[in-house]
Amino acid sequence: MEKHVAAPITKDIARTLRAGEYIYLTGTIYTARDAAHKRMEEALSGDEGLPLDVRGQVIYYMGPSPAREGRPIGSAGPTTASRMDRYTPRLLDLGLGAMIGKGKRSKEVLEAIVRNESVYLAAVGGAGALISKCIKESEVVAYDDLGTEAIRKLTVENFPVIVVADCAGNNLYETAIKEYER
Question: Which PANTHER family does the annotation name (predicted)?
Fold first, then answer.
């Protein structure tokens, strides 16, 4: 069953998503990787505030390759989410709606997802060129000096992801292992 979801992702929407579901996002999402997360943490620690209101927003852990002629972005595959784990609980506590990446998350992040009624979504690693076709617009909105790690605002259409961790505490990586062992 296809499930189409509008981004940003509110708590009401997050509550309807279950680990294992395939969904298609349409709307606005943001990119941020290691360097941008570090800079956001420094801004919060220095009482500066973030360059965007994260409430309900989706952050995609991705650093794009240069755009081909006529395209808004180059290859746009996910990066390993655990690299952002030390920064993520604080962003979730500030209202972040969802994250997109690949790989497992720490216990602290999984607890923060449940506590804040958020979700963790996975994009397929190795499919960056295909995923980029779902990105209709891209613009740098913060930390331009970070190059590919700048925060970008993306307009996406039918962006394919899988719900990995939902706000009810279900984790596809754990349930898939149990299913396989049966």
Answer: L(+)-TARTRATE DEHYDRATASE SUBUNIT BETA, L(+)-TARTRATE DEHYDRATASE SUBUNIT BETA-RELATED
Tell me how far the alpha carbon of residue 59 is from its chain's centroid.
4
Q: Counting every residue, how long is the chain?
A: 182
Smallest CA-to-CA distance from 137 within 71, 78, 51 is with 71
Q: CATH no. for residue 79?
A: 3.20.130.10
Q: Cα torsion for 143, 99, 62, 131, to the nearest 10°?
A: -130
**Which is it for strands 151-165 and 135-142: parallel, antiparallel or unpaired?**
antiparallel
SS3 127: coil
Q: Is 58 helix (H, G, I), strand (E, B) or coil?
A: strand
Q: Look up the domain containing 109 and give its range.
A: 3-181
Number of independent structural domains in the chain: 1
pTM: predicted TM-score of the whole model, two decimal places = 0.93
* pLDDT tens for each residue of 77-119: 899 999 999 999 999 999 999 999 999 999 999 999 999 999 9
CA 2 to chain centre: 20
> Which of these, 164, 141, 154, 139, lies nearest to 82 by C-alpha position?
164
Question: What is the C-alpha to C-alpha distance for residues 114 and 148, in angstroms, rounded to an integer?
Answer: 31
- Residues contacting 177, CB < 8 A, separation 6+: none
**Pairing mode, if any, of strands 3-7 and 58-60?**
unpaired
User: In whole angstroms, how far apart are CA 87 and each of 34, 67, 77, 95?
Assistant: 9, 29, 21, 13
